[in-house]
Amino acid sequence: MVKRRSWLGLAIALSLLPTLAQAQSSVVVFAAASMKNALDEIAATWAKDRGKPAPKISYAASSALAKQMEQGAPADLFISADLDWMNYVEGKNLIRNGTRFNLLGNKIVVIAPRDSSTTTLAITGADLTKALAGGKLAMGNVAAVPAGKYGKAALEKLGAWNAVKDSIAQADNVRAALILVARGEAPLGVVYSTDAAAEPNVKIVATFPADSHPAIIYPAALTRESKNADAKAFLDFLRSAKARTAFEKQGFTVLAKSNSST
Questions:
Q1: Structure pTM?
Q2: Selecting from 3.30.420.40, 3.90.1210.10, 3.30.470.20, 3.40.190.10, what CATH number does the domain 108-212 have?
Q3: Which of 4, 38, 67, 92 has the smallest number of Cβ neighbours within 10 A?
Q4: 118-159 per-position pLDDT tens digit
């Protein structure tokens, strides 16, 4: 009986080898949480077109991903939702020289639950306070998460921060802030316009002026330690016409010049 179980275990292990090998050969991407819908589509298209394993994508706040990279987490590509965290990992010598470029732009907006009585909103302290009605304003962590940093900067510029700073529900990433509003757990939230477009249970009630915060730029780059031969091919594909279509469908502004060879 023991011998039979040993052979059975060996057979199962051997049957898993192709799956394990495929997983190990996948490109590993660390990407800002706000990119999920578009990047999932692009990764699936790339895998189908190239006959390659689909990239394994880890979505989180850019701050969290940068810290994971600093602690040795393996990744082939990093796409940040702001310049600061890409500068951070580049300063730690974690990015491959000559591969960094600005990929996308975005906008930040104020959202409310779809069935909220709030339809349009002026971004002033008095109007926000009235619309919150004692509830919380959901945002990414204002000290680390890019969407939270952009949102705080905009609220400060517009003179509304002091009125709402004690009513902020700070989330680990922008998609977590989006969920709080979508579930009705917060009456308002500050997210990217692309997040609002991806969630049917929220609506945009205000858009921040572009000059109220630093330009929203998503840079992308290969990591210095990447050994995957397909990593650069996938990075190049992010500048393809197919990728552009997917990004624009989700509401991103594509900053990178199209690469006609991909």
A1: 0.87
A2: 3.40.190.10
A3: 4
A4: 999 999 999 999 999 999 999 999 999 999 999 999 999 999
